[in-house]
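Chains adopt folds. We examine one example:
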Amino acid sequence: MKVKDTLIAGVVLIVVLLIILPLPPTMLDVLLVINISVSLLVLMMTLYVHEALDFAAFPSLLLILTLFRLGLNIASTRLILGNGGDAGSVIEAFGSFATGGNLIVGIIIFLIIIVIQFVVITKGAERVAEVSARFTLDAMPGKQMAIDADLNSGLINEQQAKERREKIAREADFYGAMDGSSKFVKGDAIVGILITVINIVGGLIIGAMSGEGVPFDEILQTYTIATIGDGLVSQIPALMVSTATGIIVTRSASKDNLGRDLINQFTNQPYIFLILGVMLICISFIPGLPKAPIFVIAGLVIAIGLVLIRADKKTVQPKIEEDKAIAAAKEKRKPENVTSLLQVELIGIELGYGLIPLVDTSQGGDLLERVIMIRRQCAIDLGIIVPVIRIRDNIQLGTNEYVIKIKGVEVAKGEVMLDHVLALSTNEVKGKIQGIDTVEPTFGLPAVWVPESEREKAELLGYTTVDAPSVIATHLTETIKRHASELLTRQQVQTLVDNLKATQPALVEEAIPKLFSLGEIQKVLSNLLDENIPIRDMGTIVETLADCGKVVRDTDLLTEYTRKSLRRAISKRFVPNDKARVITLDPALENLIAEKTKQTEQGTYVALSQDELQRIYGHLQEMIEKMNQLGITPIVLTSPLVRRQFKNITSTMVPDLIVLSYNELENNVEVFSDGVIGL
């Protein structure tokens, strides 16, 4: 077993032995020095961590240090009362130094230290730990939902989302543990006071009953000095650990340690040093105050302010010159080539004037980075190569409006507010928050725009909050998924085929172009994307087409064969828990659809009457509303023969309806019917 694994067990064993076994004064001296050293080390550690979780072992360490200190208190009390006040050199040195020849002064100083430890540091640390734990736990649901929003928008991947969820859980565990550990610090302070009283009273009783004729004042001095020394040796480390507790629970996440943060934040405001210097000079004119030290300190503070101002000007000047150079270069820029405006972009976003800061990195905008993540997420989720997304400003739009265009035509639009967050209502909302009522642009859900400063309040009330860039990113992601088939060009199909050829050259040579052209492959892939089926598994898709291509040329029918080959991916995508709640078709309706399916040169269609269509639509709408009320995504399950025809029938009324056949579900999927559609 490694030394690290046995260290804590050894410390706990020492604490137990301290309580049971008597110690010689020399050994107690060594342990007291170790206690002071470890407490100082813990205090230094808390000053240099960047965030609380960097010292996640602190709650357990706090408990062990408290028990170790109590064990030393018991050992020192045993020596003081049983050894005539002689408890070692460390306690004697601290007691003599504190009293300084005057017993009353020493007692007063010792009492002041105890009051500071108990009333100020310990009480404050306990309160901060309690509040931090409560707010951290209350904010957990909102933080979890924010992570889900970033994941859905493509800003982070699944691994990053997992790491952030684990960090949130660790924060909650840490602050909860700190809330409990702070109670030990408070108890330690109370025990320190009780031990002090016991040492003095017990020492006086023992000295008086010894029968050796020692004067009472000598007994009082001996035991009081030893008690004060013991109390100081115990309370000073306790004071350092309590201070460390207060620092660690008030430490917010930062890129630097506490020292660098304080220096950077104070030096960012150099003029406050000049104001402070002038105020000190004014204070020096109060009669009776010593002018010399005040003038020295005021001069030093003013000098610091002047040095910081001079350094700040040296930093700002190159920036001004750089901005001037950029402005001059823009003035000399040649007129824009308008022919580039004639090109039709496959996909683009246009922003109103007020949303330009979202793409300006100098103002903290990160929309461009989010767009990059969206393209990557779509490649992983759907297997498509999203073309470059152009972002332009459009003065014809409202200040806070944006539009998403596919092939130059607007397909979606929305409106967001900078310096606000979108608060979405959930089932756990505990109250209503004041803000600007709106509709979430992606899914049409009711929402409220609230100022950024009210974000934490909204999360505590149970709302899910999403910032403006995430709203646009989520809207863009869903728009890409909805129009993925339109974004799949022949050139992109060629890229996908070339990528497959690098690993499966024999398969590609057999199928393309001997059996299928790029256009036919594109049609099959577009059919899959139209129903939100990923095309990442190009090997299985092309292999199925190669197997069926010699006897089947209809791309719609080839799509059905391909869907059957992709049943594992389809099952996991639409039935992730292997339990499908579905709507089925009446056998009579399936027979009717099969009988009235007509084949033409342009493809197949179902020749149903208007009355029959209306009855199907009405019954389907009733079933969909029923499942939506149950919180279930509607899925229609049909026989393979009529799946494609039923999807075509309902695509105009319910374009996003999921229609699957029995052949597209894995054998382990359990199917439960929630309704039957008939005529």
Remarks:
- The chain has a mean pLDDT of 79.
- The chain has five domains: 11-253, 269-321, 343-484, 488-565, 577-679.
- Residues 269-321 form one domain.
- The radius of gyration is 38 Å.
